[in-house]
Amino acid sequence: MKWQGIFVYGNPIFQKRRKLWQELTVSNRNKEEPQAVLGDFNDILSQDEKVGLHPQPKIYLDTFRKFVDDNGLIDIDLKGSRFTWYSNPRNNFVTRERLDRVLVNWKWLSLHQNVVLKAAPAISSDHCALILETQPKVRMKKEFRYEAFWTEHEECEEVIRRSWQQDDRNRNCWNQFIKKRGRCIRELTEWSKRKFKRADKEIEKRKKEKVSELIREGEGWDLDKIQKFFHGNEIELITRTPISLVNKKDHLVWPYRNDGEYSVKSGYQAAKEEKDTMEKLAGGEQDKILCKLGCVCWCIWKARNQHIFQQKKLNPQNTIIHSEQITTEYHNATKDLNKDIKAMADRNGEKRRITWRPPPRNKIKVNIDAAFQRETGIATTAAVFRDWEGKIITGASSKFKSISALAAEAQAYREALILTKNLQIRNCIIESDCLPLVQAIKARSPLAEADAIIRDILQLLEEAPDVGATWTPREGNTLAHQLAAMAAVNQLQRQWTFNPPIQIMNIIRTEAGFAILQNNQRNRIQDNQVSSSTNPQGNQRDEGLPGRVERETWNSHATQGNRRIHNPVSTRQTKPTSRDTFNNTNSRNKWNEDSFHIGQMLSQHKCSNGHNVVENSTNLGRAQRQQGELQRGGELAPDEDGTHTMIGERIEAGDITLDGPQQYRNFHKEPL
Q: What percent of the chain has pLDDT over 90?
């Protein structure tokens, strides 16, 4: 594999040398490619790399270290000599420094893991020549060791006897012994390789088999076995680790970067954060004591000055009380500083009215959300399927262990994809309020916190090209957010789609009302032959550039085939006034409220992943046709079963949404 080599000479003048480091950092556009920077830098990284009368100035060290950190470089260890430059004797003292070096990035080091850097003796120069061996030939003779357990095998004695009985026709006894011994070693080595497996490889294989036994195929961790073999904190760490359900291959990820790739800079930052955290935990109580002592001393000094210069009487008790008040105020102020900054940012932010956006008529929208409790690691998810009128088609909720809120959001997205596949819903939009998740899915980039889940999502999306991904603010995802929050506190029943709680019903009615208003507005625009560009919703797109999260808008081409069909038997064909439109809208909302009890149209469906979902029955098509006719002014007549049938109306293809009821009549599970 190709790699880039940059040869450097650092100017002895510090100002010019610093300018060179800045120019190299700015012009380096191939940081993700294998790179090696080598030469005479005329700089050192630490005081240990110099022996002389005067130490290296701190600004020199900091500038060179910043150059190395900004470019993600690693210093290759030098063998053969500690220093590469020697000065002429001054005052009977020789200054020695390591000015020559080789700096490489992580990509280069991963290609040449056995690299060796050697310093040759300085000949006719004050610098040592450097020898960089990317593929060193290191041959170590492995000594033969006779294993005691070989003796227990019945073939061992025969192998030894056969190798020693061969005649070499050599009169020299010592040469005969050497040859027979070598032949015996070779035959024993070959025989042991055939008969015995390597213990280290066998142990590693057994470990993988044991780990696989802790996973239930297609479901996740086997909690019964984990609780049987592990204890306490180990169980928490195992169950919080997300695992793949679709893509079975394991991958190594670096948890301190979003893309999961290791870099020297992120490693340094992680080590520094860990060090600062340990110092804070170890010295937190000491800081409080010193702070309190400082406040006491300050109050004593202030009381002393007031007594001397203002002739105030000393009151030791008031001085102690005052110092405690100052200490408390300081701790409260520093503790709530971040909260105050966040509150100020919230007050300065603009308020916008954001509501749920219904999908086009030929699509289903799936809103998902997750609730995560950091203390317990328990996460709950909710997914709700709705059509362009805001009517619920089905829904699901689940509870599991997770490591973070982002991992829980990713698992909610994966469960929604699996559910759409099992229910054979091909043309849909999955909407989430987690912006980093949607960005990662559109850019097809990994997330370290949920790497296994993201890989499953990308593989499932490849199998479902008609499934889109969109982002919405929290205000546009109110229903899924409320469902996840209620499931987290066990306030959501399994049959919530049959009999939704009051707060859920209110959200559904409100958002369904917005959907109907938007649909009516779109129909009026089409009737008046107004260009679709005046539609405030714009054009809805499901696919965009990778990494770019686009707002979901209306697809004008999808709505052209769903124009309103005028009633041929209606006794009035007058255009409704604004008052008639208002009353008609109210009647539609009233009908939506009455017909929303989808318990008459849904039957319970048990999904393979243990979630409670509800599917439509054959009454869904009838209910949708009835609503379409009611919106055009038709009348309903009661049937024998208590339902209503349209009188004197035509049923056309445009009146049946979601590709007709047959699409949801034969829901069944599919193995992944």
A: 16
